[in-house]
Amino acid sequence: MKAVQTKELIKKYGRRTALNGVSFSIEENTITGLAGRNGAGKTTLLKILTGLLKESDGKVEVYGNRPFNNLQVSANSIYIDDQMNFPTSLTLKEILEEGRRFYHNWDHTLAMNLFDYFGFHPKGRHNELSKGKESTFNMIIGLASRSALTIFDEPTTGMDAAVRKDFYRALLKDYLAYPRTILLSTHHLEEVEDILEDILLMDKGNLLMHTSMEDMKSYAVAVSGRKEWMPEWMEDKHLLYKEESGPYEQTVILQNNFTSEEKEELKRKGVQLSPVSASDAFVYMTGEANGKGGVDDVFSGRIDSGSD
Amino acid sequence: MILDTNGMKPIYIQIAEWMESEIMNGGLNVDEKVYSQYKLAEMYNINPATAAKGLTKLAEEGILYDKRGIGKFVAEGAKQMIIEKRKNQTLKQLIDDVVTEAGYLQLSEDEVIELIRNSWKGRAE
């Protein structure tokens, strides 16, 4: 069964289009990452999936139900981000108790054990937590809810590196013990890539790619060497990024679809092939820098807004 | 084993190679049950689908066999299969690289063989 299915999903805020016809489906009980630049439409998509926002057009189904205004979806999904509001009159422990009352799969032992492990005070208040502590607390709710569809939107905001590592480990372990469909948006792809099965890449309201993490990791390759060493057939490869280093040398980032003969030829000519990590490939694919100078253009005067 | 997560070699291949070395050094014997995809996922902090891909690769090569609903086990003759595979693939590739490099340096076949002989002697001592 598909956990999530969308077809030509569109969301508009006034005149601005946040989602521009997004179609994909997610298999049940997988961990999928969602990556995209700021403003790519990640949060809009995730909020539509959990029924927090209403789509403007197109189809969206979560376990066969349209999420908006749907109790079935609400009871079986959870959306965790860094803007969660809880009644200020409740202590942290009371908030967890409420979670237990609402989510039928809730694991209170896990919730309390994580609560203690991360050093929370039962009488603490949510609005008094630091940024990182707040994210940690929200993450506990997300894990303990054991919702069939668990969505984390930038869950690690403010967490220090050690807590992030603990979180990813806890997420994986709990998923292994209680498989469920998990969607995780992140700006730190390199930190989570190993625990992801699939990845959705978004750019400017469009779905750029939906592929396995394994394929994403070998999607691009860096080819570097002297310009005259580069064979002519390289022109036909899909170029993601180009960098000149000195007058003779260049590095190009290409889609990694070389045949073994082609690789052999490059090697013989002394051209170096090196891996491009998934997160770097993603930056090359979505960067303003596509063939241009990136932020360097601002300083070199090539970008001029015309104001004095 | 520590996974090299930034290298060219996919993680599922690294998992498969690790199990092969376990079989080679006697850590896993014929008809012994190997780790499940979930156990491997937990050990190496990776997605279970990645671990499963490594197990499937070894099963397809006949190094592991499947008992439905129970798990995967080390096949009879697994060691020999691994040796054959490494000889025909890994070792052959290394030697091809040596020959290519020797070509750059304009060494003769005899000179290269002499180098290999010396290395062999050094190893025996």
TrEMBL record, chain A:
InterPro entries: AAA+_ATPase (IPR003593), ABC_transporter-like_ATP-bd (IPR003439), ABC_Transporter_VariousFunc (IPR051782), P-loop_NTPase (IPR027417). Residues 4-229 form the ABC transporter domain. This is ATP-binding cassette domain-containing protein. One of its GO terms (molecular function) is ATP binding. It comes from the Bacteria. PROSITE patterns: ABC_TRANSPORTER_2 (PS50893). Keywords: ATP-binding, Nucleotide-binding, Transport. It comes from Halobacillus litoralis.
